[in-house]
Spermidine export protein MdtI (Ottowia thiooxydans), 109 residues
Amino acid sequence: MQNAELSHYVFMAIAIALEVAANLFIKYSDGFRKRAIGVMGIVSILASFTALSQAVKGIDLSIAYALWGGTGIIFTASAGRVLFKQRLSRMGWSGILVIVLGMITLKLS
């Protein structure tokens, strides 16, 4: 992997981390009752889109969006379990599996 290609995946990792952070901030904002935390969520998602825009300079849009959205969902669901004791049903885990299989299929195509 060349340095330029690697930098696109670094931006992708940053975009994913910021997306998950945005989701957590929104949850912690309690429906925007805690406005400062809600604003941090909005800023995080805007920063996530900024990093995603850099990632798609070197990663096909379909791949980048699938990685960003799918990985964000997986990490957000995991954070929900750890931080908020939220549990997915079997159907929920089946959905996560389909997302992972979809991301792998897109990457291999």
The CA atoms of residues 18 and 87 lie 23 Å apart. The radius of gyration is 15 Å. Helices lie at 3-28, 35-55, 61-84, 90-108.
